[in-house]
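Changelog-adjacent note: as of this version, every example in the card shows the full chain rather than a window. The one below runs 611 residues end to end.
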Amino acid sequence: MADLEAVLDEAGLTNPRVRAFVTEYAELTGAEHVEVVNASDDARLLEEAVAAGELQRAGEGRYYSRSYHKDTARSEERTIVATNDELDRGVYNNWRPASEMKPMLHDRMRGASEGKTMYVVPYLMAPPGNPLAPWAAGVELTDTRTVVLHMIRMARVGVQFVNELEDPDSFVRAVHVTGDLEHLGQGTPDDQRYFVTVADERTILHFGSSYGGNALLGKIAHGLRQGAYDGWASKKFLAEQYMLIGIHDKETGKTYHVCGGFPSASGKTNLAMMAAPDALGDRYHVSFYGDDIAWLWVDEKTGRLMGMNPEYGVFGVAKDTNEKTNPNALASIAEGTECIFTNVAHNPATGEVWWEGKTPKPPTDVKGWLDWTGAPLADRKDNDTAAWAHPNSRFTTTLANVPNVAADYDDPVGVPIDAIIFGGRTRDREPLIRAITDLAEGVYDGLTLGAEATFAAEGVDGQLRYDPMSNRPFMAYGEGDYARHYLDVVGAATDQPIFAHVNWFQRDAEDGHFLWPGYRDNLRPLLWLLQLRNGEVEGRRTAVGILPTEEELDLVGMDVPAEDLERILTIDTERWQQEMGFREEHLAQFERMPEEIWEAHRRVAADLEKE
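Full-length structure tokens:
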């Protein structure tokens, strides 16, 4: 390799520990060139990617990327948390010893970047100056230019974030090597892919993919897995798969902040980007902070629980994003936004893109259109109903492109958290909203968060797929220890947030229609929740939380049938009693579960028996 020291000097990379890290992995992977990246390199790298055929243009100021057809999603079964202490083993974190995984990944990476450029991407997963910034700095090494371009959109990128560290060694070491995608045995017993977070060494080693969270190492591997472990090890903070919004009341001048977790396909991004319904728009404004990750900590001076989105962009699912479900998302990926689409349908001649749900029907004139695999749609047979876009197709755009982004989204102070909500897609048992004012019961509810997914396959009617705090795929250490840490961090706040469980997806048992219209109207139960916290309403107490009365919900401008409204504001006691048995089995899997959580479980179960 050409003089690496000279390359790093010219790039202004002065941190000696970072330079040693780059040197080590440049030698291991056999990269031919090394290039240090700053955000200011974006325009040049876009042009280079287009010239190399790695990106195509998708209209003015938009770009299109196509994955290898076996490389289209995260692979949780190949995702490992490794440490040097087996006590870190959890039910969901696929724990393996660091002594086993590091040599295995190094063997796979050895010489795998020969002939390629190693891009050095210094980044920060926090607003500069944030109290959690000491845990937010990282350096990703990647052999894929499109990964660099996504990272520039999803994180704050520049050498200054590692040159100026108080402790030059306090950065996450993240290495991404793509490998030979056509010969990795994806999904077979010989699968070569591994995505490993060596959490107690703050090292991330990913091999065998160039897609999404497998390759954008600042996002999930650092922002969630490593962040969660760091938060626990330091006893300072929580890193959660939470959206974060602000709700501004123009009449009172107050702004409230709500964060919360939702399993996949439960409406998290749409909620994060929602606008107020027309009938309430003159009074309320909803501002967007983030749709995927929130770090939470207690401000020692004020005693408030604070939150911030460590990401700098949105990596959103394209499917079913349209003018009704999420107009703000569409505006954030309009022409001129420099966004990147992945695995949607694309018309290279016109620059248009399309995905299922973007419009009720696909374009009628298929001339020039290619599906997500690159196959011409004009060549399809009439009976070919395969999707045009991959169901996990994505768009990547910066936060600044979101029309309702909060004015203070980049403020280092963060925002005070007034409410923490959970919500899963369930057709029964869960009402529209139930509020929880007890910390242990709120954490218990988050640990037993579930959504319909697997009960048919498992043959147990009504059993949910539990997804604790919506963090199941991202757990970094044992679930019992996680519950203890959550209780301790939030419990240290002098002004406690209110918890709630929401459900936009209850259906009529006979004809299957949704009982609640959802989307922008989801603001209404959140307003009730904040009023409850402020003591402005009382609600109706049940064994599983406080429910709004019909009179307390602001339903102006809505037309919900009385029988539907009654259903979504009612508890099905029999269904809930069955649910408690499932919950007990679920929690019993986890070692060291705090007694406060079991006490909350017994309290709710006993109250249900009284109803």
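Structural remarks: The two ends are 74 Å apart (CA to CA).
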